[in-house]
Write a structure and sequence with these properties.
- This protein is an all-alpha fold.
- It folds into two domains: 30 residues; 121 residues, Globins (Globin-like), CATH 1.10.490.10.
- Helices cover 69% and strands 0% of the residues.
- The protein contains nine helices and no strands.
- The radius of gyration is 22 Å and the shape is globular.
- The N and C termini lie far apart (80 Å).
- Bound molecules: protoporphyrin IX containing FE.
- Protoporphyrin IX containing FE (HEM) binds next to helix 4, helix 5, helix 6 and helix 7.
- The site of protoporphyrin IX containing FE has 22 residues, from helix 4, helix 5, helix 6 and helix 7.
Length: 154
């Protein structure tokens, strides 16, 4: 082995040590769907913050006469978990939404526009109570607003 091939080997070894960890990292953490929104997820306290927020949200939905009847006999644990996944994706996190489509999950529930608006209002109150900054709240609400097309059927 001459001096030139030793030098080349050294270059490859250095390159491998630089490239290898990032290759592993890229596999473990695929690129988020909306990386530009990532700081918004942080303002919700990440997935842990969303989990606490959904507990608060569900408690308020069950406490409100406008929404209680829809959720009291639902699988609340599942709905909260699906909401955490869905909101995490919307906010640019490294999550996968494993639930059903909005049309499928709400078909047959006969949800009116007023009930949709009530749910959005209750979500705002839950976010206020958890101290989510106003601008971050609005970014989430802007993504949820068009969903009335799939959710409202009456
Ligand atoms: C933007 C608004 C809304 C979003 C993002 C949303 C999101 C979701 C998600 C992710 C699920 C779980 C899906 C699954 O289990 O695979 C779900 C289920 C459910 N949602 Fe909504 N939802 C919205 C509006 C509403 C409204 C307005 C009501 C009623 C007032 C409602 C009542 C329910 C009920 C009762 C379930 C459980 C259905 C079942 O277990 O079959 N949702 N929703």
């Amino acid at each position: 082995m001459n001096i030139r091939s030793i030098a080349l080997l050294a270059v490859f070894a250095a390159a491998a040590s630089v490239l290898a960890p990032s290759a592993v990292h890229a596999q473990a953490n695929p690129a988020p769907a909306h990386p530009e929104l990532r700081p918004v997820l942080d303002e919700f306290g990440g997935v842990d913050g969303l989990t606490v927020l959904m507990d608060e949200f569900m408690a308020r939905l069950l406490d409100d006469a406008r929404t209680r009847e829809f959720f009291e006999f639902s699988d609340q644990t599942r709905v909260k978990q699906q909401l955490v996944e869905q909101f995490c994706v919307i906010l640019g996190g490294d999550c996968v939404y494993s639930g059903r489509s909005m049309a499928e999950s709400h078909q047959g529930l006969d949800i009116r526009r007023g009930e949709f608006n009530a749910l959005v209002e209750i979500l705002q109150e839950a976010m206020d109570s958890r101290g989510v900054p106003f601008a971050a709240q609005n970014k989430l609400l802007a993504k949820l607003a068009p969903m009335h097309r799939e959710v409202v059927t009456k």
